[in-house]
From TrEMBL:
Protein name: DH200=94 genomic scaffold, scaffold_386
Keywords: ATP-binding, Leucine-rich repeat, Nucleotide-binding, Plant defense, Repeat
Source organism superkingdom: Eukaryota
An example molecular function term from Gene Ontology annotations: ADP binding
Gene3D superfamilies the record matches: 1.20.5.4130, Helical domain of apoptotic protease-activating factors, P-loop containing nucleotide triphosphate hydrolases, Ribonuclease Inhibitor, Winged helix-like DNA-binding domain superfamily/Winged helix DNA-binding domain
Domain Disease resistance R13L4/SHOC-2-like LRR: 514-696
Length: 698
């Protein structure tokens, strides 16, 4: 990060030198001198940052450098262009991007043992606990067992619930109900929403009473959490099973007090299994080159059979030159000395910190920013890429879009096993990603140490005066005294215990966060946008992306057109022609969701869309369910980058401008009254990239 500071200063000074202005006498040469000095500091800063974890004085000095930079040069956070070609051989390894955590190495024997315990002839409810430290692959193993065909067919109901450290009984039970009803393809009864905890518990017991079920409780952190969930589960002597994973031995023991219960203690991989996994990850199943075998085995020994550590270090080494033994020796020595008696968690932390320290600087900011997300949170890939871009983490390169560069960053972090793929879309593209718990813990610690991100729980947690990236988990409308927010670049809210109000947001913005670029209110459902927002001239993302297609809209006073840097605007209620006209001033928009469009404003909207040539995703909903979307005018928007279009409202025919969208991949027409006839299909048949068409009524 310190080198990123120097790189950014150099970029800004270069810009200053290139401007066609008359500098005061002597100033130009002074600027050039500073630029040259910063260039000479790069090599030092690179080494300093790599060593800061083992040197408290150096760490303190680097923190001061970062804070000084934020005070003086806070409008960007982008690093310099690295001379290392970290992406050079990325495509060659594309087939190994999504290697599973243990790639099935060493999993056959424990899988068979767990299946035999689950499918034995005990008729009572049986608990099988899998215990071991983070990174051993507990979840991977249990998922393979849970998905096994022989296991699936023995049970009528199946559910997988992630419990996590922030255990909330009500949320867990409601998630379980949702899971059970999804499986039988029925909606959850509406009365569930108003039930108290006792009623929810009885509801689950009644549902499962006569069913043979298997329930996985992944990542249980406390005995109290297990005891609370156990009371919900019926024991109806029909051989139901609960499988539990935990890092804590006492939790495993407490959950398995009955005679048929079973605790499986996960052990590290054997030397042979570790070597197989290491070679799979580092050399794509090829044998280790003879010149590297000695140093590779020394590095592998440091991993102590931990699959996550092996996969992580293998991702680092896969990018190193196979002929340059000295690069591998540097990785070995990068582990540093180990104090006698240090625990495995500390050793694993060193391994994962090594993966972090080896990252190019443009990836460090991207990865650290993920520390804002709650534990086990499914991170939307498209959304996080846009945040990286908005916050200046993505370097610009001629001839390549910033979105493509950001996706390269994402794939490289996946390739290094620092980010996990959670799900993909029908076309194989990335959908959701996430962090392993241990990786997240390290990032949270690192980010807090550097003052990079701040996480406030339930909002009454105080944050530093120079907070840069603020995340609020479980929002409550009980704010601390708002102090200066002049260093703030992004604020994201996850989950709400109290409704988000316009009054609160107005008070929050009174902290004068002039440099704010990202304002994401995940699930906030704000009624009105306060006028203070229009002072945020650097704002690039605003709204509630989690409810992008929710149907409701947020009222917006006139003035939205002042936010000329805005790239994403969600759920804005188009309740006047003036507001629709102002949207046309937001020429940098990539994503736009409009609700409540009146029929008479259709032509005005098309006129505004003419100017929004950077749009990638567009959603338009009419004011009433039976209202007509009047989008048939001679005004002809041409959006060469638009890939997703959603129209909700009656249509007489497919608008002519839609048939010219050459990049369109997804088209959704809701309540259009159009049918899948030759006229509709024929009018869209010339779209070369269209792969998904939906015609439906809501």
């Amino acid at each position: 990060m310190a080198e990123s500071v120097a790189g950014l200063l150099i970029n800004q000074l270069s810009t200053l030198l290139s401007q066609e202005i008359t500098l005061l006498g002597g100033l130009k040469s002074d600027v050039q001198f500073i630029k040259d000095e910063l260039e000479s500091m790069k090599a030092f800063l690179r080494e300093a940052e790599a060593k800061e974890d083992n040197d408290s004085q150096l760490r303190a000095w680097l923190k001061q450098v970062r804070e000084r930079y934020q005070a003086l040069y806070g409008t960007q956070e982008r690093g310099f262009s690295s001379s290392r070609q970290a992406n050079a051989d990325f495509d060659i390894r594309a087939q190994s991007l999504f290697i599973e955590e243990a790639q099935l190495v060493g999993i056959d024997k424990p899988k068979a043992e767990l299946i035999s315990k689950i499918l034995d002839d005990h008729s009572q409810l049986k608990v099988v606990s899998v215990v071991g430290m983070g990174g051993l692959g507990k979840t991977t193993l249990v998922k393979k067992v849970y998905d096994d065909a022989a296991v699936k067919k023995q049970f009528q109901s199946h559910a997988w619930i992630t419990v996590s450290r922030n255990f909330q009984f009500r949320d867990i039970i409601k998630n379980l109900i949702q899971y059970l009803y999804n499986e039988i393809r029925q909606p959850v009864p509406p009365e569930v929403e108003s039930m108290n905890d006792i009623m929810l518990s009885e509801f689950v017991r009644d549902f499962l009473q006569e069913r043979r079920y298997i329930l996985v409780l992944d990542d249980v952190w406390s005995i109290d959490a297990w005891e609370a969930i156990k009371c919900v589960l019926p024991d109806s002597t029909i051989a139901s099973r609960v499988v539990l994973t935990t890092r804590i031995a006492d939790v495993a023991s407490a959950s398995c007090l009955g005679s048929p219960d079973f605790v499986y203690k996960m052990e590290p991989l054997s030397d042979k299994e570790s070597w197989t996994l290491f070679c799979n990850r580092t050399f794509q199943s090829n044998d280790c080159p003879p010149n590297l075998e000695e140093v590779a085995k020394k590095i592998l020994k440091k991993c102590e059979g931990l699959p996550l550590a092996i996969v992580a270090i293998g991702g680092v080494l896969a990018l190193k030159h196979k002929e340059k033994t000295d690069e591998w020796e540097m990785i070995l020595h990068g582990f540093g000395g180990e104090a006698d008696g240090s625990g495995k968690l500390d050793r694993m932390k060193r391994v994962l910190l090594l993966s972090y320290n080896d990252l190019p600087h443009y990836l460090k900011s991207c990865l650290l920013y993920l520390s804002i997300y709650p534990e086990d949170y499914p991170i939307d890939v498209d959304v996080i890429l846009l945040k990286w871009i908005a916050l200046g983490f993505v370097e610009e390169k001629e001839g390549i879009t910033s979105t493509d560069i950001a996706m390269r960053y994402m794939k490289e972090l996946i390739n290094r096993s620092l980010i996990q793929v959670k799900s993909t879309l029908y076309d194989g593209s990335l959908d959701k990603c996430g962090l392993h718990d241990f990786v997240r813990e390290i990032l949270v610690s690192k980010s807090k140490e550097q003052g990079f991100t701040t996480v406030a729980t339930k909002y009454y947690t105080r944050w530093p005066e120079k907070v840069r990236h603020l995340a609020i988990h479980n929002f409550t409308d009980n704010p601390q005294e708002i102090s200066s927010l002049k260093c703030l670049r992004s604020v994201v809210i996850f989950e709400y215990e109290d409704p988000l109000t316009t009054t609160f947001l107005s008070e929050f913005l009174s902290g004068d966060p002039k440099l704010l670029k990202v304002l994401d209110l995940d699930g906030g459902e704000l009624d009105n946008i306060p006028k203070q927002v229009f002072k945020l001239f650097h704002l690039r993302r605003m709204g509630d992306y989690s409810n992008e297609y929710a149907g409701w809209g947020c009222k917006c006073p006139l003035g939205i057109g002042k936010l000329i840097c805005l790239e994403a605007l969600y759920n804005i209620e188009a309740d006047s022609d003036k507001l629709v006209r102002e949207i046309g001033k937001l020429t940098q928009l990539r994503r736009l969701t409009i609700t409540g469009l009146r029929r008479e404003d259709g032509k005005e909207l098309l006129s505004s869309l003419l100017r929004l040539t950077n749009l990638r995703r567009l959603s338009i909903s009419c004011i009433k369910e039976d209202e007509t979307l009047d989008l048939q005018h001679s005004v002809f928007p041409k959006h060469e980058f638009l890939t997703s279009l959603r129209l909700k409202g009656r249509l007489e025919r497919v608008p002519q401008w839609v048939t010219s969208l050459q990049s369109l991949r997804t088209l959704q027409l809701f309540n259009s009254t159009l049918r899948e006839d030759e006229n509709v299909i024929g009018s869209l048949g010339h779209l070369p990239n269209l792969i998904s068409l939906s015609l439906s009524c809501l």
